[in-house]
Specification:
The chain is α+β, with helices and mostly antiparallel strands. The chain has helices at 12-24, 118-128, 146-157, 159-164, 171-188, 194-203, 211-223, 231-237, 242-253, 257-275, 280-286, 292-303, 307-314; strands at residues 3-5, 30-33, 40-47, 54-56, 62-69, 74-78, 81-85, 92-95, 101-105, 109-116, 140-143. α2 crosses α5, α8 packs across α9 and α10 packs across α13.
């Protein structure tokens, strides 16, 4: 007996994961969403073997699936075609939005899903391609892609920090990783023409952000460290698209915007810990961390010390 879901009985961004959870009787190990809580970006899953075919009739978003652990034999039926493979750990599958599919798995496994909204692809194409139609991301199953493997390893590496933050990702990190991911998918895994892909290649040779604009962004970051910062807000300061700004800023500073902002938050936190008697919870808030536990986990990951131990060793009071 098949388990079926239309995945259309909840808000668009979250309905597919809700349907997956209901059909597999498995809650995600971790949900990664925007700080605002408006959008689910990714989820970590541990699936049991299926007891019967699982049918998703109307997937409301494209899903990029990374095989994290386990070696089940997975079968998928879509558009009248049946594919059965044993995905290797590190392989990636893309299930397009709107394409009904039936899935079966004979063993438990762990996967990381990233949900690719069509509007994000449309916006990227409008800003970077001279195309009459938005390219569609290819439907692929258990593919090997070193870049995507590295991308998911980065997400997995952030797992503990994201968990400490309640699953709410730093908006800047979310924006940045999504931007890089969509560029890669459009460039290497889409219906974009050879000429359109050539446009993306030519755009990779980016000029470093002008020093005046770089200082403007850095001053804005310094003044707003306690606030939620978005890639779009920083790009607007330089009058650029988010994708162009990301690459130009990295060319100018050697850091992505997220890594730069994180470095500034940790620098300010270190200064406050060593030069003041402020409560650690207040320092966490002043430096833009979502909670004391998130601040402590992040600070320890980058310095090797907890905030309290750092204060004891470096206090100037």
């Amino acid at each position: 007996m098949a388990l079926t879901s239309k995945a259309s009985d909840a808000p668009r961004q979250s309905s597919l994961p809700i349907a997956i959870a209901r059909l597999t009787a498995s809650d995600p190990l971790l949900r990664i969403g925007a700080e605002s809580g408006e959008r689910l970006f990714a989820a970590f899953w541990r699936f049991p073997p299926t007891v019967g075919p699982i049918v998703v009739e109307h997937p409301t978003t494209g899903t990029l699936c990374y095989q994290r652990a386990g070696t089940p034999r997975i079968s998928r039926v879509a558009d009248g075609k049946r594919v059965r493979k044993r995905p290797r750990i590190g392989s990636v599958t893309f299930a397009p939005m709107g394409v009904p599919a039936t899935w079966e798995s004979d063993r438990p496994c762990e996967q990381v899903h990233v949900y690719v909204d069509s509007h994000v692809v449309e916006q990227f194409a409008a800003e970077h391609l001279e195309a009459s139609a938005t390219p569609q991301i290819d439907d692929f199953f258990a593919a090997t892609d070193p870049w995507l493997d590295g991308y998911f390893q980065m997400l997995i590496g952030e797992y503990d920090l994201l968990r400490e933050g309640g699953g709410r990702s730093d908006t800047l990190l979310l924006d940045q990783t999504e931007c890089l991911l969509v560029r890669h998918l459009v460039r290497w895994h889409s219906t974009a023409s050879r000429g359109e892909r050539g446009e993306l290649d030519s755009q990779r040779r980016v000029t470093a952000l002008h020093p005046v604009l770089t200082r403007r962004v850095q001053e804005y970051v310094e003044e707003n460290l306690a606030d939620e910062l978005s890639l779009r807000a920083l790009a607007d300061l330089a009058h650029m698209s988010a994708d162009h700004f990301l690459r130009a800023f990295r060319a100018a500073t050697g850091n992505t915007p997220y890594r730069y902002v994180l470095g500034q938050r940790l620098r300010k936190a270190s200064q406050l810990l060593s030069e003041s008697d402020e409560a650690i919870a207040r320092i966490a808030g002043r430096c833009g961390f979502r909670s004391v536990s998130h601040f402590s986990a992040t600070f320890h990951a980058h310095t090797g010390l907890t905030p309290s131990r750092f204060r004891r060793q470096h206090s100037t009071n």
